Each structure stands twice: as structure tokens, then as C-alpha cells.
Amino acid sequence: MASQAERLPLPSQHPLPLSAGQEQQVRDMYYKRVRGYCASEIKKFAECAINRTVSATWACRQERLSMNSCMIMYATQQEQDAAREEWFATRLERQRQREEKERKRVEQEKFHREWWGLNEKGAPKEQ
Predict the structure, then answer these.
(1) Which of 19, 26, 76, 110 has the fewest beta carbons closer than 10 A?
(2) What number of CA atoms fall less than 13 Å from residue 97's CA on the CB side?
(3) pLDDT (tens digit per residue) in 27-47
(4) 118 has which bridge partners?
(5) What pTM does this model have?
(6) Using CA atoms, how far apart are residues 72 and 79, in angstroms rounded to an integer?
(7) What is the pLDDT of residues 76-106, one digit of tens each?
(8) How many Å apart are CA 11 and CA 88, to the nearest integer?
């Protein structure tokens, strides 16, 4: 996780709309946070539902209700806002990761061309 010094503040309480992909990333963070709060309830339901199909509906009713009520309790607008804030706070780290990935890709491409004696376009070099 990035340190506080590296984090940028949320641009405003009502930032510009995010792209569909960015919104999906925020939703994924939100779902992960909610699942983290309810991990024990989810685990109990999953253990009950093992080797069951349709019968899990009534055999694991208490576990399911417990899991659902927990998730409903934590699935709030405040959690969505916290996930959005976290997304904005970690954007510098994601940018660094993308840049590092691109740098490695370029290095691997260069090595590949040198190894196989290829030019920039991928064709064999003239000897």
C-alpha cells in the first residue's frame, strides 16, 4: 500500500465521472471490502453448502441469512465512497506498476530481437 506521502487526495467530493473500466475497479474494491467484513459468515455458508446443490437453499438457510444480513449491513454508500477514495489514493501506485510492466515488456522485446537477430520490425537482420 502506498504511504500517506505518496497518496493524492480525492480531487473533490464530486469528482469527474470515471470510465466504465475505472468504475468496475471501484466496484471490485467495494465488493472486496464488504466480503472482507463478512468473511467468517461467507466461510460458514460455503462450508455448509459443500457437496450440496439445490438442497443448500434450505439446509443452509441460517448461514445464508446470516451472510446476507452481514453483507447488507456493510453494503452502504459510505463503503462505496471509501472504495472510491481508496481507488483515487492508489492511482499513483497503479501508474508506477503500469510503467514498470511496460519497461519490462520493452526489455524482453529487445532481448528477443537480439537473440533471434531480428530488426525493429521483426524481420531477420541483413548480414
Answers:
(1) 19
(2) 7
(3) 999 999 999 999 999 999 999
(4) 124
(5) 0.65
(6) 11
(7) 999 998 999 898 888 888 899 999 999 999 9
(8) 8
Q: Which residue has the cell 466480503?
A: 35
In 1-127, DSSP assigns E strands to none
For the chain, the residue count is: 127
Contacts of 60 (CB under 8 A, 6+ apart): 45, 48, 49, 52
Nine-digit cell string for 70: 452481514
Are 28 and 109 contacting, i.e. CB atoms less than 8 angstroms apart?
Answer: no
Dihedrals phi, psi of 118, to nearest 5 degrees? -105, 155
Among 39, 58, 37, CA closest to 48? 58
